[in-house]
Amino acid sequence: MTVPTDGPWLDDAAGRLIRPYTVSGGRTRPTAELDLMSLVMATGAASEMYYGPEHSEALGLCQGPTSVAEIAGHLRLPAVVTKILLSDLMDSGAVTVRPPHNFDNPSDCSLLEAVLDGLRRQL
After folding, report:
1. Which one of 81, 100, 105, 108 is CB 3.0 to 4.6 Å from 77, fit for a cystine?
2. pLDDT more than 90, % of the chain
3. Residues 67-78: pLDDT tens digits?
4. Residue 94 contacts by C-beta under 8 Å, 6 or more apart in sequence?
5. For residue 90, what are the CA distances in angstroms to 17, 31, 34, 117?
6. DSSP string over the chain
7. What are the structural domains, with CATH classification, of the chain?
8. What is the pLDDT of residue 40?
9. pTM of whole model > 0.85?
10. Please, are residues 40 and 55 in contact by the beta-carbon 8 Å criterion?
């Protein structure tokens, strides 16, 4: 078993040792409507609320506009859990969220081609 001191606790065979419902405090729904393509950015405002390490890690990923899907991928958490973490940060004023540029038509071919190109570059 591998137990890093600075990241999520992982077991080589089982994955995360801390289950997603624990990370979200048992909540199943975020307080704000977030789309996977929504762009999240840190405001720089100090939060008075205490958050767990996953909140801090998510906030660190938001230094520039970052999509909810990308944050979920980096955190290795399900999208709904990531949305809950981000909605907590939104509620405290630590991050702002805006829809992507082409949100008027999410089935726009140029948007889908840009996503496909991005995925191909990752391979």
Report:
1. 81
2. 26
3. 999 999 999 888
4. 42, 43, 45, 47, 59
5. 27, 9, 11, 30
6. -B--SSS--EETTTEESS-HHHHTTT--S-SS---TT-EEEE--PPPSS---HHHHHHHHTTSS-EEHHHHHHHHT--HHHHHHHHHHHHHTTSEEEE--TTTT-TT-HHHHHHHHHHHHHH-
7. 28-122 (1.10.10)
8. 94
9. no
10. no
For residue 44, which amino acid is it?
G
Among candidate residues 87, 54, 82, the one with its CA nearest the CA of residue 69: 82
What local confidence, expressed as pLDDT, does residue 119 receive? 81
The encoded tokens of residue 121 equal 């570059």
Tokens representing 46? 């100090």
Segment 52-76 mean pLDDT: 90
pLDDT > 70: percent of the chain:
70
Handedness of CA 117, 58, 61, 39 (dihedral sign): positive
